[in-house]
């Protein structure tokens, strides 16, 4: 079974990219692997009446991905990964690791001056070991 990689950062535009990737995975009978790239940060201790708790750069990201997998799963197999680093590097690394057939990215920041500065989609297109599908995610 082939694998499709898609990035998700919790935004509406990344939700649109995930939805497009789900449609592709269903049509191609592929597995979907949803990836979130995060910056590594030192854990922060939050004090409270009950003693408090510790949060780090990866906390919360796993919950966002779990929610997305639940929301969009059903007809396809969905796996998730939280990866430390830049989004384009994380997507490419996961595609290489899983020998993916395709990476789906959103079209946010792929037009105008920001295109010249480099967007996630531009970075993935330059580095990808497989096909790249740029989903139209901006109105």
Descriptive report:
- The structure is a single chain.
- Mean pLDDT is 82; it is low at 113-118.
- The protein is globular.
- It contains 5 helices and 7 strands; from the N terminus they run E-H-E-E-E-H-E-H-E-H-H-E.
- It has a 5-stranded parallel sheet with strand order 5-2-1-6-7, sandwiched between helices. The chain has a two-stranded antiparallel sheet with strand order 3-4.
- The longest helix is centred in the first third of the chain and has 17 residues, at 12-28.
- With 139 residues, the protein is of the alpha/beta class.
Short description:
By secondary structure, the protein is an alpha/beta fold. Helices cover 39% and strands 26% of the residues.
Listing every helix as H and every strand as E from the N terminus to the C terminus, the arrangement reads: EHEEEHEHEHHE
Number of helices: 5
Assembly of the depicted chains = single chain
Which segments are poorly predicted (pLDDT under 50) over 5 or more consecutive residues? 113-118
Strand order in space, largest sheet: 5-2-1-6-7
In what range is the share of β-strand residues? 25-35%
């Amino acid at each position: 079974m082939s694998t499709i990689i898609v990035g998700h950062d919790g935004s509406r535009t990344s939700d649109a990219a995930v939805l497009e990737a789900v449609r592709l995975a269903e049509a191609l009978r592929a597995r979907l692997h949803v990836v979130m790239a995060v910056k590594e940060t030192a854990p922060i201790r939050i004090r409270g009446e009950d003693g408090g708790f510790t949060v780090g750069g990866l906390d919360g990201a796993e919950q966002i991905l779990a929610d997305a997998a639940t929301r969009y799963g059903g007809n396809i197999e969905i796996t998730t990964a939280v990866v430390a680093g830049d989004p384009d590097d994380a997507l490419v690394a996961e595609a290489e690791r899983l020998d993916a057939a395709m990476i789906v990215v959103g079209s946010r920041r792929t037009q105008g001056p920001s295109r010249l500065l480099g967007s996630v989609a531009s970075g993935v297109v330059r580095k990808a070991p497989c096909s790249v599908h740029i989903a139209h995610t901006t109105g």
